[in-house]
Amino acid sequence: MPDSVVTSLEAQLEYKNQQLAAIREISRAIAEARDLDDTLDLITRRTTEVMQVHSASIYLYNAAESKLILAASTGLNKRGIGQYSLPHGAGLTGWAAEHRELVAVADAFQDKRFYRILGSGESKYPSLMAMPLMSRDRVIGAANVQTKTMHAFTDDEKELFIFICELTATAIEKVKLVHAAQIQEMHHRVKNNLQTIAMLLRLQIGQEKKLSPEDILNESINRVMSIATVHEILSEATVDEVDVFELIKRVSTTISSNMVNPSANIRVSVRGESVHLPSQKATSLALVANELLQNALEHGMVGRETGEILITLTHNPQFLRLTVIDNGNGLPAHFNAKTDLGLGLDIVRATVQEDMRGKFNIGPRVEGVGTEVRVKIPLDES
């Protein structure tokens, strides 16, 4: 076999290997897809590389405005992403979406269907191939590839582009489903947390110890802020889990700033190690930490100008341990943990024992004056 033929075959084999690698990467992106922008950006970049074109763009269909909006591109002006649009049926890409078929032209500028988006930079790409993005017989967008030199797209290129567009449509729909599920879960989580706050307020009304309206509001604000901290951390995360060490540090900072007199030397310290819990369990732990710190400040440090509260979080594969120790006034004489818990500590006991299947203990500090509270929660229940 002549060397030129061997070289040609080797080049074709290498090209096919590149195509397969790109398709595998796009498929992985679809399997892991959670963020639409990142997924579409990856698809356009890999399409540009494997098809050896100079621009690859994806448009999403906006049904309310009946137009295609640029969502990702490797060759068009990046500032136009989310801004540039094609009216219904406009341009070769719009025509492909409207007629639900592939279109490929070597000289797009001479085609009567050509539509120029001013400022996009597409004037340097004479050749264009476009394809609708379809899902369950609905047009959800369109994609195109463009080249800087005149190029007649081959049947192999058309077949590859069709396959990539099918994968892209699958990715878009998957991300939409993930997003819908996340929204539903978010609403469910917020509803549960609001119900928890309502329950705590009802308990506040029924307690024997009468607090001033200001005290009731401050306690309620602290509980709401503790739950809000969970949502704040979730909004920063890529998974539905919360680092409870970071959570407790933030809760303690919030509660301290709300309750500690700036002129007093009351120090709140948080020590320990990171451990991640699902959001619902983290919310329960945030309430526990909130109530324990409030209790230490309200009772242990009342009337004191100096004092220290140490919150410690540790864990092993089986259990998480939360300890709150203060060097304050200590427990009342003849204190009975079964009958003398106030509302805050009763909330802690119920949350730990009933909701989290854990253990709750309160007693005098082991060394020195003050109070020590120990919470132990099984991690295998999370």
Annotation keywords:
alpha+beta, 23% strand, 382 residues, 13 strands, six-stranded antiparallel β-sheet
Offer a quick outline of the entry:
The protein is of the alpha+beta class and about 375 residues long.
Helix content: 40-55%
Q: Which quaternary structure do these chains form? A: single chain
Individual helix count: 8
Strand order across the largest sheet? 3-2-1-6-5-4
H/E topology pattern: HHEEEHEEEHHEHEEHEEHEE
Radius of gyration: 31 Å
Compute the average pLDDT.
Answer: 80
Question: Would you report the number of β strands?
Answer: 13
What is the 3D shape? elongated
Instruction: Give the distance, in angstroms, between the N- and C-terminal Cα atoms.
Output: 65 Å
The share of residues in extended strands comes to 15-25%
